[in-house]
Structures are given as C-alpha cells and as structure tokens.
Write a structure and sequence with these properties.
The chain contains one helix and 15 strands; from the N terminus they run αβββββββββββββββ. By secondary structure, the protein is mainly beta. It has one domain: Porin (Beta Barrel), CATH 2.40.160.40. The strands form two sheets. It has a twelve-stranded antiparallel β-barrel with strand order 1-4-5-6-7-8-9-10-12-13-14-15. Strands 2-3 form a two-stranded antiparallel sheet. Strand 11 and strand 12 form a beta hairpin. The N and C termini lie far apart (51 Å).
C-alpha cells in the first residue's frame, strides 16, 4: 500500500509540473515537438532560444494510427535553454470525421483537435521527457474541461519518455514511452481495453536510422508495443513500420521549403498510409 501511495504522490507532482509547463507556455515560453519518435536534438545550445513552426500534412498519422482522417495543420512553439526544453505541439483537422463504433453504428466526431505541452531534458544524446496528450471534443470544443486532472475522468494522458540519438557516425534513434496517468485504462469485465478502471501503462517503443542520399533525407523506422492497449492495438507486436523521405525545395538562395513524405504500415490493423507534408 505504501508503494501505491508513493506512486500517487509522484503522479500528483507530475500534474503540477505539467500545469507549470502550460502556464510557462501561455506566458510566451515553449517548445516544439516533432511527431517522429526518437527525434531529439544532438547539440544543446547554451543561450536561451525560441523556435516556432507549422506543418501542413495530408493526414495526421502517429504511431501507426490515423487521427482525424483529414488534412491537418500542426503548429509548434518551443523555448530551450541549457538542455531543457518546454514546448507545445498541436494538430487541428480541416474537416469533420466519423468513428465506427460497431457494425451498425457510426458516430460524428467533429473536427479533430489535439494540444500537447511537454517538457524535456537532453544530455549527451539522451532525452528524458514528460508529455501531456489532450484531445479536444470535436463537436463542442469549448465544453471540454481542460483543467480536470482526476485520474478516472480526465481527458489528459501523461507519458514519460526516454530517447537516445546516436552520434553522426551511427545516428540510430531509439525511443520508449509509457503512459503513466490519465485516459489510458485497461480491460473491463468483457476484456475491452480502455473501458476498465485501472491504468494500463500502455508502452510504445520505436527505432529509426536516418541517413542522407544525394541531399535527400531517408529514415526507415519501426515501432511496437509489448502488450495490448486501447491506444495502439489489442495485443503486443509491431504496429508502425515505414519510411520517411525529406528534401528542402529551394525557391531562392535565401528561401526554401522542407517537403516530406511517409509510407506507414500498421500490421495489426492491416492499414497502410501514404502521407505528404510541408514545413512552413
């Protein structure tokens, strides 16, 4: 019982930590997040640094799943200093989407919206991160109770992640993340993930190896889960395999626009995605 009491205190501390991150973001200091797992900064800049950007994507695909079934705009903003980074990332679909509940029922979900503040620390290629995933109610976004942090009813899901970015001679990227609090529940009495009362601690791992061929970035990757989850799939296995190719299109000597495309396959759901995106 003492262990569970201690864990509860840790989770409560993480809630306040993420509230601080959100406040820090709203006051003008935050970070940017890239949806490719394992991408962390190799070099840490000592001076304080702000950054911001926006991606336009044909689909929002994350860890082998489609979120929103729509083209989306994905803004990000970041503040970094001495290895620490505080950031916020979002994704907002352009058109409404539907979700099939069963063979006879389809539910209108409205426009997909997501807001993910995060804080991380990088040291010698290793990054420890805490991310707060939060999805808005697409039909009535203003009715979502963002400041509800109760474990049983909150729409927030906290993930603790650990990433490694190898040296230039062997630039392998490794990532593992576990959902530790919030909207990630285990099985109910009928064996359905996500409908139980206890945390599931859904875990995702990914490996990637980026390289360059004649100025074109190439990155094969694969990701999987050790056990079932309402977030990723009903059983352990590979859920995310693909290849991302990127290139900056130069319009002038001073202005270029990064273009990227990804082919993603999810063996568990038997899905395949072909995504293209622009970075503004």
């Amino acid at each position: 019982m003492q262990i569970f009491h201690t864990m509860k205190k840790v989770f409560q501390f993480s809630q306040w930590l993420m509230v601080f991150a959100v406040i820090f973001f709203l006051s003008g200091s935050c970070y940017s997040q890239v949806r490719d797992e394992g991408i962390v900064e190799k070099k840490v800049s000592n001076p304080p640094q702000f950054s911001l950007g926006t991606d336009l994507v044909s689909r929002y695909i994350w860890r082998g799943k489609d979120y929103g079934n729509s083209p989306a705009i994905q803004p990000n903003v970041a503040f970094s200093y001495a290895g620490f980074k505080i950031s916020a990332w979002g994704s907002f679909g352009f058109v409404p989407y539907t979700m099939q509940v069963n063979d006879t029922t389809t539910v209108n979900m409205g426009n997909y919206g997501e807001f993910d503040p995060s804080i991380c620390y990088t040291f010698k290629g290793i990054t420890l991160s805490v991310t707060d995933y939060f999805v808005f109610n697409g039909l009535t976004p203003n009715s979502t109770n963002y400041f509800n942090y109760h474990n049983k009813t909150t729409g927030h899901t906290y993930e603790v992640g650990l990433a490694y970015n190898g040296p230039d001679k062997f630039p392998i990227q490794l990532f593992v993340g576990t959902l530790v609090y919030g909207a990630d529940k285990g099985k109910d009495s009928l064996g359905t993930y996500g409908l139980g009362t206890k945390n599931n601690y859904s875990t995702y791992f990914e490996a990637a190896y980026p390289f360059t061929v004649k100025g074109i970035g190439v990155k094969p990757f694969f990701g999987g889960i050790p056990f079932g989850s309402s977030w990723y799939g009903p059983y352990g296995g590979i859920v995310n395999v693909g290849l991302t190719v990127s290139k900056t299109i130069q319009f002038t000597k001073e202005f270029g626009m990064p273009l990227f495309t990804s082919i993603v396959v999810n063996p568990q759901s038997q899905s395949v995605f072909f995504v293209v995106g622009l970075t503004l």
